[in-house]
Amino acid sequence: MLDAIITSKTRLKILLKFFINPSTKGYLRELSAQMNESTNAVRVELDRLVEAGYLERNANGNKVYYNANTMHPLYKDIHSVVKKYLGIDVLIDSVLAKLGKVHEAYIVGDYSRGIDSGIIDVVIIGTVDYTYLAQLISKAETIIKRKIRPLVLSPSEKKKYDQLLHFAQALLVWHNGR
User: Fold this and answer.
1) Residue ranges covered by each domain of the chain
2) What are all long-range contacts of 158-162, with beta carbons under 8 Å and residues at least 24 apart?
3) What is the predicted pLDDT for the residue at 91?
4) How far apart are CA 51 and CA 66, in angstroms?
5) Does domain 87-175 have CATH number 3.30.70.790?
6) SS3 59
7) What is the pLDDT of residues 96-138, one digit of tens each?
8) Helix (H) / strand (E) containing 98
9) 113 within 8 A of 17, measured Cβ to Cβ
10) pTM of this structure
C-alpha cells in the first residue's frame, strides 16, 4: 500500500524508521547500514525530509542525528499511516482488544526501532487465555502478513522488566483498554 505511493524504497525505510516510534534517532552511517543502502542515497532522502520539515537534524559531537519532527502538523497522520502499513493497528484491534485483562502492551525489537523485519515482537502485560491468544495471533498474521511473537507477563512481573522495556525502546501501543 504505502510502497505504491512512496516509490523511493530508501525514503520508505526512513519514514518507517522514524515514524513508528517518536523516540527513535539515528545518524547517517548507522541508517545506511541498517537499511543496506548507500550513504549517498540515505543522505539525499534525509535532506529532503528535513527540508520538508518531517525530520529534525541535530548535531552531537561529530555526528548528526535525525529524528521525527513530532511537532509537524502531519506527524500524527504519517504515524497512523505507518502503523497501518505495518499492521500494528490490526494487531491492536483484533488481538489485544479481545484478550481479556490486558493492562498494557508494547511493541519491542526491530519494529520499535522502526525496522520492518517481518517479525513483530509484542510484550503483553496482563492475564490472557493462551489458546485464544494463539488463535487471534494466527488470524492477525494472515491479515498483516507478518509474524507476531508474543511475550505475556503478569503485572507483578512487569516491574522486573521495566528497565529492559526502557532499554529496548519499547513502544506502548495499549494501556488499560485504550
Assistant:
1) 2-77, 87-175
2) 158/103, 158/104, 158/125, 161/123
3) 65
4) 12
5) no
6) strand
7) 667 878 888 888 888 888 788 889 899 999 888 888 889 888 8
8) none
9) yes
10) 0.65
